[in-house]
Amino acid sequence: MGYGELIIRSYDPQYDRTRVEDFERKCEVGPAKRVFLFTDTLGDPICRIRNSPIYKMLVAELGNQLVGVIQGSIKLVTVHKPPNDLAKVGYILGLRVSSLYRRRGIGSSLVIKLEEWFIANDVDYAYMATEKDNKASVKLFVDRLSYVKFQTPTILVNPVSHRMSRISSNVELAKLKIEEAEAIYRKFMSSTEFFPIDIGNILRNKLSLGTWAAYPRGESWGGVPSSWAMLSVWNSGELFKLRLGNAPLSCLMYTKSSRLIEKLVPCVKLPCIPDFFRPFGFYFIYGVYREGPLSGKLVRTLCRFVHNMASKSKDCKVIVTEVGGSDTSRLHIPHWKSLSCPEDLWCIKALKNEKKNSLHELTKTPPTRALFVDPREV
């Protein structure tokens, strides 16, 4: 390469923490065509994987120069025909290569090295998520590293305002005990793609704010309501912050003017954009499930409840939800189109020869079932 030998090694928190923090600060994430989102990991570069069962971070160096990083986590999930089919999967995230050293094979080398760690830990499949329009990422993983398209989830983002949302008086809300929530998830969602076997650990994590159910008032939760819905909430803002950068001037002007008009003329109800230009946190809704003819309305009511909960937080500025592309629950989850991503892209690769045939079947099967998005991997 002309810059010395490329060295890829495990992340050393004592030596690498500050270097990686500085490196990450220069790298943007998010839908590049709309906005840039910068992350602040609050002094912990591995915060996004720390809550996973097994995790690892690798750094790439040329000489004394940090030129790339990558992270990975491992867990046991259901795939394709659960609950009989279980697989150990490795998730790839946080791949960054310095803009000065791109197109030198550093990204490929980092992914291959992480795959070797997966294989050493008996992982069946490796998978990753990227923006559908991220041509460089798709070219790297699909064209060069033999990953194939697996799912196209929808990411829904809804701003949090200080105005409280109205909760219908015809709906009963109940906060579920962890044991009850775990039992319901195992009963009704264990057949979803990528359902984590350690769901109990997720629900018991300090970042999980709770699980709530909604059903028609007058019916009993102890029985079988004619319609019901449930979801859980994860406080991602405790791990890292986001900040909007390089946004259009019109966006900034609207944000400021809408706030000013709201103060001067409260009766004028303009859609108010929160202050995204300072670091902020967010809540992540996961485990959305519903049954019955009124369940769509119940999902919307639960989302309004979460909004009201978030509005009491000085730090939380948006609520994020990710659901399978064919999951009709997305139609009932409030979101702003301009902030959301209608098609994220998940790609997957079999790391064992005996899994390659099942991979073909897995990726060619229409994604008719729901997709469980693990909040630990957001």
Automatic annotation (TrEMBL):
Domain N-acetyltransferase: residue ranges: 6-178
Pfam families: Acetyltransf_1
Signal peptide limits: none
PROSITE patterns: GNAT
InterPro entries: Acyl_CoA_acyltransferase, GNAT_dom, Plant_NAT
Residues annotated as transmembrane: none
Molecular function terms from GO: acyltransferase activity, transferring groups other than amino-acyl groups
Protein name (database record): N-acetyltransferase domain-containing protein
